Amino acid sequence: MKASWEKIEKNLGVLQVEVDAERVTGALDKAFKKVVQKVAVPGFRKGKVPRPIFEKRFGIESLYQDAIDILLPEVYTEAVAETNIEPVDRPEIDVEQFGKGENFVFKAKVLVKPEVKLGEYKGISVPVESVTVTDEEVAAELERLQQRHAELVVIDEDTAKEGDTVIIDFEGFVDGNPFEGGKGERYSLELGSKSFIPGFEEQLIGLGTGDFKDVDVTFPEVYHAEELAGKPAVFKVKLHEIKRKQLPVLDDEFAKDVSEFDTLDEFKADLTKQISDRKVKENEAKREGEIVEKAAEAAEVEIPEPMIDTEVDAMVRDFDNRLRAQGMNLDMFMTFSGQTIEDMRGQMKVDAEKRVRNNLVLEQIAKEENIVATEEDVTEELSKMAEAYKRSTDEIRSILSANGSLANLQEEVAIRKTVQFLVDNSKN
Domain locations in the chain? Predict the structure, then answer.
C-alpha cells in the first residue's frame, strides 16, 4: 500500500491511497462469500452457487461495492497511521479505481487536528488565594448534614407544602388527547425542585392525601416536542402520599451519630478543618484552571467545527448518564424543563469550544516539553483504578487494552502532567 498526504488549506487535506491488486482480490473473495448467502439461483441452494456461475449471471461488478465496504475501513486506518495525521471528522471518499486485477486507488478529503501556535505558557501569574472558614460556613455545613440525615415522615393530617415530597400519579392531555411522555405512576416529586413544567408544582401545594386535581399549564413556546410547543395542557393528578423532612436536633448525640466525635464542639472543630482543606483543594483546582486558560488564550489555533460538535456530543451523553443515575433520562428532562436538545447543545457549545482549545494547547505544550506518560505513570494509574474497582492491575490493563482505552488513559495522564508542569512554572 502507498499513502501520501497533501495539505489543501488550514486543517483540510487530501489523503491519496493506492492498494495492490492482491488485496482487492481478497476483498472480492470476502464479498462473494457474503453476497452468495443471499442470492437465489435456480438449481442451487442459497450459499452454494459456484463463483463462475454467479459472475456469469450477475457480473463481477456486483461485488465491487461490498468489497470496497470491506477493504476501505482497514486501508484508510493504515493510511492514516502511515501518514501520521489525526482526523477529526469522517473523510470524504472519492474512489478513482477499483476492479478485478487492478489496484484500488482512492482519495480521502480529511479534516485534521489544527496546528497550534503557542504563546507564553511559562511564568504565568495567578495569585494563590488565602483560605478562611467562617462560622456561617460551618453552620451551613451542619444544616446540610441535618438535611442529609433527616427522616422523611409520612404526613396524613396536613396538606402539601413547598419542600415536601409527594407521591403522585399523573397523565397529561392536550386538546383532550394524551401525549407521549406525559404519564407517570407513583412518581416522587419534591415541591419546589422546579423539575416539572413551570406552574405544575405550585398547583399541588395545599392538596391532601388522596386528593385529585386537574393541573393547568402551558408548554413553553420553544419546546423540544414541536406538536406541544405553546399549547395549553391539563394534567390529571392523584396525590397518594405526602412526606416531610424531620430534621435531627443539633446536639452531642447528633455529633455521635454522624461522626467519630463525642461532642458537638469537637465535631464543629473537625468540620472547620474539613472545610478549610476542601477550600484549599478548590482554590488549587481553580488556580490550575486559570493558568491553563491563560496559556490557551495566549495561543493561536483555529478549531474545526466538527471537533466542537464531538465535544458537545460527549457532554450531552455525560449529562444523560448523570440523569439516569438519578432515575431520570434526557427525554424526561426535556419534557419537564421545556428545553429542546438544540437549546441544550447551544448552551454547551461555549464550554465545549473552551475544552477543545485547552486540550489542543496542552497537547502542544506536552510535545514542546517532551512530556509523556511513562510506563511507571500508567502503572500507578492502573493501580489506583484496580484498588477502586477491587480488581488486579493486570486485569484492568487487559480490559483497557481490549476496548482500546489504554491509549486514552496514557493521553489523560500526559495532560495531567502537563497541567502540573504549567503550575510548577507559574508565578504566585
Answer: 2-111, 151-246, 260-424
What is the structure's pLDDT at 292? 96
Exposure of 258 in the CB half-sphere (CA atoms within 13 A): 23
Q: Is the pTM of this model over 0.70?
A: no
- The DSSP annotation for 91-121 comes to -EEEEEE--TTS-EEEEEEEEBPPP-B----
Look up the CATH number of domain 260-424: 1.10.3120.10
| CATH number given to 151-246 | 3.10.50.40
Which class in CATH covers the domain with range 2-111? alpha beta
- Strands in 12-19's sheet, in edge-to-edge order, are 2-9, 12-19, 104-111, 92-97
Q: Cα separation of 271 and 135, whole Å? A: 11
Read off the C-alpha cell for 222. 420553544
Q: Tell me the torsion sign for CA atoms 343, 345, 346, 350.
A: positive
pLDDT in tens, 66-117: 999 999 999 999 999 999 999 999 999 999 999 999 999 999 999 999 999 9
Q: Which residues touch 381 (CB under 8 Å, ≥6 apart)?
A: 409, 413
> Which residue has cell 489523503?
15
